[in-house]
Amino acid sequence: MLPKLLGLVEQHHEWRSRCLNLVASESPTSPLVRQLLATDLGRRYWVGDVYGGGEYLGQILELTGQLAVDLFQAGHVDVRPVTGHMAVLATVIGLASPGDLVITVDPERGGYPLRIAQRYPIRLGFHPMAPDGLTVDGPAATEQVRRLRPRLVVLGASELLFPHPVGEVACATREVGATLYFDGAHVLGLIAGHEFQDPLTEGADILTGSTHKSFSGPQGGIILAATQGHAAQATSSMLDSPPLLQSGYHLNRVAALGVALLEMREFGVAYAAQMVVNARELARAMHAQGIRVLGAERGFTRSHQVLLDMGGSYATPQGFAVKRTLERAGILADSVVRLGVQEVTRLGMREDAMVEIAGFVRRLLVEGEPCEQVGRDVAELMTGHRRYHFCFESDTAAYESLMAAAR
Prior knowledge:
The chain has 407 residues and is α/β, with parallel strands linked by helices.
C-alpha cells in the first residue's frame, strides 16, 4: 500500500503542474514557508508551562503574533486558529450567546454559511443587499441594525468583489451595543497589502481571515481586533486552556505563518496591487470575448476574485457543469465559478497572461472546443511559470527582514 500511496501523491503533483489554478480559496506558499512546515515544530505542544520542552515555542508564538499586529496595525491578534473556520467559530461563540440575533450576509448571496446556528441556537438574520447583489446596502443595513438590535453584525463574505459599508454599519452597531465583525477570509492579503478596505480602521471590532487565500501563507486562521478590549478577549478565550475548540496550534504552521507575514511586509503591496490588476484584466478580457461576468457596471471587481454569471444563486447546476468543463482542460475553479488570480499572480503572470486565460475560457465555454485541445495549451502556458514571485529567495533574506522588523 505504501507504493500506491506515494504514487498517488506523485501523480497529484505531476497533474497539478500542468493545471492553471484559479480556485479562489487556495494559494501557493513560498519555498521557505514549506520548509518550516516540515520542521520538528509540527510534533510539539505548547500550552504555557504545561508541557516540558517548550523553551522556544512560546517565543515563536509571541513573535508571530507581534508580526501580525505590526502588519495589520491591530490592537490584538490571535494566530492560534488552525483553520479560518475555527477563527469564525471562536468569534461567533465568543461574542454571541444562545438566543442572540446575528445579522450576516446570506450564503445564497455569497456570505459564509454559519451552520453552527443549527447546533448552537443563535438566531440568524441577513443584510439587505444592493440592487445588483454584489455588496451590502449600507443605508438599509444600518436601518435594520437599529431596528432589530442584534448582538453581533457580520460583514465580509466568501464571494467578495467590492468593499462592504463598514463605516456606515459601525455607527449603528455602536448605538445598539452590538459587535461588528468583518469576515476577511478571502481578502486578508489584499487588506495586508493596502489594496482593499481596512475593516479595523473603518470601525470593525474584529477581523478574521484565512492565511492561505489571497494571503499566501500556510493553511490556517487568524483573529485580529481593533483593541485589547472585550471583543478580543471573548474570542481568544475560546482557544484558551482548558480547551474548548482546540488544544493544539500546529506550531510548524505558526512559524511558517511568521515567514508569510514577513513576506507580506516586504512584498505585499506589490503582490496585492498586481492581484487586483490581474483580476480586473481577466474579467475585462472575458467580458470582451462574450463571457458573462458579474459587476461590469462597477469595473468588474476590486478584489482578487472574478465571478462568472451562472444565472442564479450559490452553486447552480450550470456552475457545476462549467467547473467540470474547465477542469477537464486543466483550469481549476469552484462550483460557484468564482475565479481567483492569487496563484497565477504569485507565479509571475501579468495582464497579457490574463488575456490568454480568457481566451482559454472562451474556447471552452463559447466555442465549445474540445477540452483536450485547450488543455494542451494550458499546460504549455504553465511550463513558463514555475518560479514563485513576491517571496524571499533564501532564508538569509528572511532573516534580514526579521532583524529589520525587530529594530
